[in-house]
Design a protein that fits this description.
4 helices; 11% helix
Amino acid sequence: MIATIQYNSKSYTIDLSKPLDISIPLRASKQNVNAWYIPEPKIEPVTDGQWVGKVTEGASTNFNTITFNPHGHGTHTECVGHITPEFHSINDTLKRFFFLAEVITIVPQEQNKDLVITKEQIQKAVTSDQIEALIIRTIPNDNSKHDKQYSNTNWPYLTEEAATYIRTLRIEHLLIDLPSVDKEKDEGKLLAHKAFWNYPQKIRYQATITEMIYIHPKTKDGIYFLNLQISSFENDASPSKPVLYKIVK
């Protein structure tokens, strides 16, 4: 399944049969990745009196209700509505789904007892001025990101200057393998979110942030095509499935 894409007057070839899924699956388990001090997701059959929506309980179909929070339970994509008093929907924001993207790997630096991703690190790592999406993998990077319990861990985050610099690169879609681009407990400042979306000055309504991804160590840094898939939720955020495709030529 070879596809040729014309982008900025240049031709790229990708193999659609070889996707690289960088999302984290959602499971009804305490081992599901978790942040923001909430209980684990639940996937439970509907009950109606003695009827249970489960084939092993005598029903003709499995009929489950899923209870979860997109921000705290796995890979999700959010729009500026995440931080605005007025409602904005990710379903209305994200209308195109293929983007030229770059994967970079960063070792967060210690700063005032925190681990941060700095402007200087982003400057050194980004190699292309043509990309629309930037995908940040942090070190350490292993399978524990699939089930890590992030609450009260003070995870690494982007500095305000780093987020501002990413905005100046005209990056419209920022993806990261952490629960938030911001510090876990920052007194509600949300400096990186606001800097990336240029809030409240000249808001970039079309821009998105995707958090809690996982990039396999065998996936190399470099330029890819990104297919950023979301569910059609009328909400500030949706569970999402970002998929990378290597550029063949």
